[in-house]
Design a protein that fits this description.
This protein is an alpha/beta fold and 188 residues long. It has two domains: 79 residues, no CATH class; 76 residues, Beta Barrel (M1 Pyruvate Kinase, Domain 3). The protein is 23% helix and 27% strand. It has four helices and eleven strands; from the N terminus they run βαβαββββαβββββα. It has a six-stranded mixed sheet, with no helix packed on it. Helix 2 runs parallel beside helix 4. The longest helix is centred in the N-terminal third of the chain and has 18 residues.
Length: 188
């Protein structure tokens, strides 16, 4: 019986070696997804060619989907050891690129004050802290931490996309697109 559904698997550090790719293909992976948000183009191309090689070795065509990074909005640095942002606490959001703390998160997006409204939920980090904006001043916003997390480095900030004023695709997206089209990618 032919399957009408397809199995799409994201390939990353835990699944990029040849043995794991081979096992995934044998288990039925139809499409390998390469996310470029946390990788360089060169790292993505290495994975691309490795998938093609293992797919050929196995005699089974596996489609490759590249997920372009798109625009990035980041918080100011929390440091490598991280900062605990507990549920139920209050925190301030403002435009800037200096360090962030458990009390203040600086965001490198110049239109932050215009594009976020009271009542919006903002996620910091991949599935990390969730904040709900409760008050808005000219130069800062106050938010309640709905879901706490330990934040490290410069995590991404998810702003409701219907208001985000960053052009998309970005110039970096076009560079990645050219590289992967030249390599023979199946889907973007």
């Amino acid at each position: 019986m032919n399957r009408r559904t397809k199995i799409v698997a994201t390939i990353g550090p835990a699944s990029e070696d040849e043995a794991t790719l081979r096992a995934m293909i044998r288990a039925g992976m139809d499409v390998a997804r390469l996310g470029l948000a946390h990788n360089t183009i060169d790292e993505g191309l290495e994975r691309f060619h490795r998938i093609r090689k293992v797919s050929e070795d196995e005699g089974r065509r596996v489609g490759i989907l590249v997920d372009l990074p798109g625009p990035k909005v980041r918080a100011g640095n929390f440091g490598e050891t991280g900062v605990d942002v507990p549920s139920g606490s209050s925190i301030e959001l403002r435009v800037g690129e200096a360090g962030s703390s458990a009390d203040v998160i600086e965001v490198d997006y110049e239109f932050l004050m215009r594009d976020i409204q009271v009542g919006d939920r903002v996620t910091i980090g991949d599935g990390g802290a969730v904040l709900e904006v409760t008050d808005k001043k000219a130069d800062k916003m106050l938010a309640n931490v709905v879901a706490g997390s330990t934040l490290r480095g410069r995590p991404g900030v998810h702003i409701p996309s219907d208001r985000l004023q960053i052009p998309t695709p970005t110039p970096e997206d076009f560079v990645a697109l050219d590289a992967f089209v030249d390599a023979g990618v199946d889907m973007v």
